[in-house]
Give the backbone structure.
Amino acid sequence: MKKALIFLMIAFMLTCMFACSKGEAPGTPTELASPQESVTAAPIESNRPITTEQPLPTDDESPYKLAEGKYETDENGVPKDYYTYELPLSTTDEVFTYTWLCMVPNYIPEEGYESMEFPQEVKKTLGVNIEYNVVTFVNARENFSARLAADDLCDLTFSAHWYYPGSKLEAIDDGYFANLYDYKQYMPNYYRAAHMYPDDVNVLGQIMPREGTIPAFYAIYADPMRQNGPAVRGDWLRKVGLTQKDIVTIDQYEDMLRLFKTEIGCPSPYLLLSLYDAHAIFACYDTHAYGILQIKCVRDGKVSFAMTAEQDKHYLTTINEWWNEGLILKDYLAIDSNPKGLSQITTGQVGALGMIPSEKLDFEKLSDDPDMDWVPLANPVLYEGQTIHLALRVKTFADGSWWISTKCDNIPLLMTYCDYFYSSDGIMLGNYGVNGFTSNYDENGEIKFADWIVNHPAGFSNSLHIYCLSELVDGGFKLQSRSYAFEGGGKIKAFLDFWADDEFYHYDGAMEYPSSIVLTAEQSAKFAQYKPDVATYLSETIPLFIDGSKSLDEWDSYVAQLREIGLNECESCYQEAYDAFIASMK
């Protein structure tokens, strides 16, 4: 398609989001956010000054190009259309600081991230100066805690809720981060995006967890798709006489692993991760067995955590049987993600795992086996036609978000900077980087990433974190379709199409814990009090069930011990919040 058509399609795509579900008009903030009032805390008084009015020049010579007063809204205050900004946004020399997480710090030059092509292009285009406080996963929490203690947060912080010692709402009520709702006139695109799904309370509920409170600019997918799922060595499947569609049930998946071991000679075909089922491959057991007191589900109105219910015992029974047969990589506790297991993956020590599609490129490029061919599988089921009830919902939100400090000297301008990346122009810059460098339009007018970034030594998916906006770190609209926007990208798209195939994908989300629920301050404090002991015992015991050091016949006593040391109290926090949420919906 031609460049002009791409922009038209983006505008059309964003407009169509409002017509999702039954084609109804966007709901009002009150209609969708009010359920949260009963499950969140009242504002906490703070001694820190919170400024919500920062007057800016209003005459024709203003150095700022802000959106306030330049767009129409409906009767509910929602902008009628996405706003196109006049650029540059600013002609001043103001500098904003940004605590930014770098996935590949060894590729940042000595001159700093500011000197790289993408931030330079953003600065040139928007006229906004950003100074980056670069952190990594290793020191991000320590850096945030130190800045918080010193009351010296950067103007902009990535995903502050990951590290703040309280809930998202407490981060606002305590006075450290701005309530974006108070400045909504400066974010027409984000405020419109917040109302894209009028029939899904979880979307507006996450963005506005309490009426009149928007904590952050969350990264939103403009084209939601499955992000990850089961995958397997397709070349091995062919060698043992199987196809992808032959693997439907857990029993067939298990037989496939045995063939990989006996016929291919793979020593331990399945890659289990240290936090277990990160990619929800085994959601057929009505659990998402991942993490330590992270994943919650609702069965018959009762809230429970992963690795504490009978369904988790069924999952662990399968994993223990595979362990005993030698079907699982033995040193899984040292591997928390695929990058940590890269050497085992690329050298043929495993042949089945969960992955994101773009990892196919990295695995095959780094392997000495020219025949390596990773392909998608459907999530295995207990019986053909089974409907999965949790963990496989297509995500509306990416992981990244932007939080603005109340101490920022020019919140309206920084809000405008963030909101730009929810506009049609901002989508292209944020997702594809510098045109003519990171990406180009081919002879058919289709945008493609340059070969050098697809073949970047850090890996294609990792390189996007520094040459574009990061899905994991930054806010803005995200395009999952960019993951296959390169020559040969059809192989990546094949993963997404296969996982979404109605022949295999039967999902109703009936056991999902609503993502928009936020604990009150009291509930958060109670959970924090009891969590450490429960989490420690759980994390120490589950590996024993897996390797057989502890018999699964002792499951009931294990759960009883969890309850004795605080599991009941942990569950009650989320049960109270869930019950209040359901009551408010009636």
User: Anything to note?
Assistant: The two ends are 47 Å apart (CA to CA). The first strand starts at residue 95 and ends at 101. Residues 521-547 form the longest helix (27 residues).
